[in-house]
Amino acid sequence: xxxxxxxxxxRFLDMMAAEAGASxxxxxxxxxxLERAAESLSGNLGNAGxxxxxxxxxxxSDLSPATVARRSAALRRxxxxxxxxxxxxxxxxxxxxxxxxxxxxxKILDTNExxxxxxxxxARAASDEPLALRNLxxxxxxxxxxxxxxxxxxLPRGALRVxxxxxxxxxxxxxxxxxxxxxRAEKAVxxxxxxxxxxxLWLFPSGKSHLSRIRLYQLVRAMAAxxxxxxxxxxxxxLRHAFATHLLSGGADLRVVQSxxxxxxxxxxxxxxxxxxxxxxxxxxxxxxxxxxx
Length: 294
Known about the structure:
elongated; hpI Integrase, Chain A; mainly alpha; DNA polymerase, domain 1
């Protein structure tokens, strides 16, 4: 990437942080996608014309549709910014590829597997061994409240107050949301917090900072193996999916689940309605006004 292009990308990311409230992870993803697009454009990102942009579809032919869609979205926003700022008179993004793909259904665990996961974690925590208490608290917050990995590992030490059954989180785009905490999750967090140094800024400290997302991923997989669940089937995000799916299975309203997950668009939440088709069929057969008519 040329010096000029790097300066443009920096200005664009500053705007995304200041005006759109983009998170650090989002900004990192945008930077990576723009740098790779610049490589495909032979280092000529800011001044690329429609002809060069149209050739990206061929250059990206080996990539997955989801990756192409993500990179195209980053470039559309970037070129839109350049035009709004008067840096370019035109916006060449209309020539970007628009792959058609179906959004994959999320991986989920059934309730029996979740029970096995908790039984194994609770058995280890019964010894009051500090790391076992930490792992149980992590598990309770992942599955019990549907937290994102970044939200969980970056919780401050005082995030949960005794007798206050909820957390106030800043999720994607620095948007605040209220997350209810179950009594069992509160108990697990309180037990773990007794092991956390009082001077720690974080609820889950690690070295000079907090637990990393990668380390959380590793811990969740280790807990799965301990419960007899194939580790490749589980991740922090799979537990978030299970939280949403099992809530809907229990009769929760889709709008409520949207709020709990912190989704800006309910279309993102609606994917969970495709997961539990058996329950939807049962609802139609038993709850519809005509269900009792013979």
